[in-house]
Amino acid sequence: MKPIADFAKHFGTNLSLDERFVFKKANRYFLINEKLRSLISDDFFYAGTYLGKDKGDVFFPSFSLLAMIAERKEANSVVVDDKSEWLFICGRDVFWRGINKVTGMRKKGELTLVLNTYGECLGFGKMTSDSKVKQGGQKVAVENISDIGDFLRRERRK
Amino acid sequence: MSGKEFFVNRYNELGWKYKPVLLKQAIRINTMNADENEVIKRLKARGVELEKIPFLLNGYWVTKSKVSVGATTEYLLGLYSIQEAAAQIPATIFTDLRDRTVLDACAAPGGKTIQLADLMRNTGAIIALDVEKRRLTALSNQLERCRVKNAIVYFCDARQASNLKVQFDCVLLDVPCSGNFAADKQWFKNRTLKDIERNAAVQRNILAEAAKIVKPDGEIVYSTCSLEPEENELNMDWAIRNLNLKTEKLDCYGEQAPTDIYGKKLDSSIGNCRRIWPGLTQGFFICKLRKRARSE
Question: How far apart are the first and last CA of chain A?
Fold first, then answer.
């Protein structure tokens, strides 16, 4: 599925999913297994692993898809400290001073996963500056695009 | 026929003396996603004090917390769920869930669906149904948060589950019920015996449908958070008399269900069911039914 593969490429990695097991329902994509495929009918509401959705030309990934990308060692990512983890899941940006480690591209405008110290994916964002040395710790390094705090925001929006 | 006195007298006749209850918040570790001890350690570091619930597999009471347990990173990553202690019992009653085809007939908001997936280690398949579309969105969000991979969700009334054309090894019927006073402060004000009888009739329809779609020798776990025998023992008595089902003895928290309900003698096998009066948990009722094999 092109939108998913294209999205993964933004993180400097390839993700190839077996198309026989990727189902599209309206604008949403789901990855299912053999067993589910034998049982599923067209009118399902949700199935297997939710991968994300199209909105116009933009693909919005699910947190499961981000976690799948995070399993790729080469994927762009930053590991943040505990304080930055909390701020990030509250919807805030990541400052350079809160970053413990950077993997992959660190160019302005690149997408990067945001991981906690356990290597768990908290969401993703866009690099806003090129390097730690030039910008200093007080500058924003990653602009928050999506974070797992969204699960709570969805509940509140209901 | 309503009001606190009316219902309290009924409980008294069933052998339980009414007392007000303050429920403790409980969580369940999703061991498919994380090591139990690791999660406990991480929560402790956040100022969450837990006490193991002695009659549950992965359940803990939250005894003290500096943070909201519904807003930690660990919660948002699906490492645990918030689930009332008694509500953690029904999914554990099935004999063996791995690689099975399981129906969660009244699934939203999804606490038990996630627990089923956890017990199944994401193997097999869960078909999860609910009749309210709004609740399906909440269910789907929970499945995504907890990284459940083996569920298909349908907008479907449990009373029409045979339209799915699937035969199930296991069926969880955590049916819509009247609830109980421990979980609802206004319960005595809002409920009448007529409501309860109406709910009991819906529950019998759901049971009848489940009996059609469970395989011979397959298992149905029926549960409610109601204390009213019309929704519990009396419905189970009806089910074993009319639906080719038999009860199986349960070895879980709770007491033996009564078989004499306000003078009506029920089948003695109803004593296999478990009734949980409010106290350590909210009120609950659980029954394990097995569809008789063709040869029986």
Answer: 31
Give the count of beta carbons closer than 10 Å to the beta carbon of residue B128.
31
What is the least distance, in Å, from the CA of A149 to any CA of chain B? 7
Residue that finishes a domain, picked among A69, A98, A114: A69
Neighboring chain A residues of B166 at a CB cutoff of 8 Å: 39
Together in a domain, A150 and A82: yes
From B202's Cα to the closest Cα of chain A, the distance in A is 24
Contact residues on chain B for A61, CB-CB shorter than 8 A: none
Could you tell me what percent of chain B has a pLDDT over 90?
96
**Structural domains of chain B ordered from first start:** 4-13+86-291 (3.40.50.150), 24-83 (3.30.70.1170)
A148 in the same domain as A124: yes
Q: Could you list the residue range(s) of the whole structural domain that residue A7 is in?
A: 2-69
Q: Specify the 3-state DSSP secondary structure of B52.
A: strand
Q: Please say if the pLDDT value at position B70 is more than 90.
A: yes
> DSSP strand E in chain A: where?
22-25, 28-31, 46-47, 49-55, 58-61, 77-80, 94-95, 99-103, 111-115, 121-127, 140-147
Question: Is A39 an 8 Å CB contact of chain B?
Answer: yes
What pTM value is reported for the model? 0.96
